[in-house]
Amino acid sequence: MIHVTKTVTVMKPRAEVFQFWRNLERLPSFMIHLVSVREVSASRSHWVAHAPGDTQVEWDAEVVGERENEFVSWRSLEGGEVHNEGSVRFKDAPADRGTEVQVELGYDAPGGPVGAAIAKWFGEEPSHQLTDDLRRVKQVMETGEVVLSDGSLMGAGEGASAERPAQAPVTVGPS
Prior knowledge:
Blueprint: E1 2-10, H1 14-22, E2 34-39, E3 44-51, E4 55-67, E5 71-76, E6 83-92, E7 99-108, H2 112-121, H3 126-143
Antiparallel strand pairs: 1-7, 2-3, 3-4, 4-5, 5-6, 6-7
């Protein structure tokens, strides 16, 4: 299982960020790799996601732990095309600067190591997706929309999408 942890600070109160995230059917609005999420019950949901090669994968998931305004944890159910589990934690950021959102994700790549390599090539690798997803949720929560750039700083040859959430360029100082 591959594990990924990413964090973002959102300049909104913790309860507001938690409630926004907890509405699972809203997730595809900022997680562009998701086609849909349908809540089947208070603790179960059905997920459809884009996969490499213009395909889709589906799975069912259940919430296995939750404390309002603090965390939600989940795991996929048997029989899905993607085995995954993880949690989203919400805590007050230092110096009254909003909410820290930390996502921990564990997944088995469809197709094993070969599938993971293909996903990375096509820009579908969950670590990169999660970074972009967190940038987008920050933008949506703080500004009401996702600001897109005209292209990726990574260039076209790296499997980058044509548009990415706007972000400051990485600068490297003199060595």
